[in-house]
Design brief:
about 90 residues; alpha+beta; 5-stranded antiparallel sheet; 2 helices
């Protein structure tokens, strides 16, 4: 499996089949599973004061993005990303 890198851009399809480009903002391993935080490239390119939407996806054993299965899993991943993102901001 190829390692996903921060800054990579991927095309993903939503539940309606519409394709969107997303950029990897962070990569993190939680409980031996790799996850990525992504946001829409279009949102990242807009200069605005509004918050951007960030989505968490897990990387399955085939190296593909997969949805997070449960609220508990989402909460664990969200909290772990919050910790690293807040630490990065505090260091500036």
């Amino acid at each position: 499996m190829e390692k996903v890198e921060v800054g990579e851009i991927f095309t993903i399809s939503d539940e309606t089949g519409e394709e969107n480009e997303v950029e990897v903002l962070a990569v993190l391993t939680v409980d031996e599973v790799e996850y990525v935080a992504v946001s829409f490239v279009e949102d990242l390119q807009e200069e605005t004061d509004e918050d951007i939407d960030i989505f968490f996806l897990k990387i399955d054993e085939d190296g593909d993005f997969a949805a997070i299965d449960s609220d508990e899993e989402f909460d664990r991943v969200s909290n772990a990303f919050d910790e690293i993102l807040n630490n990065d901001e505090g260091g500036e």
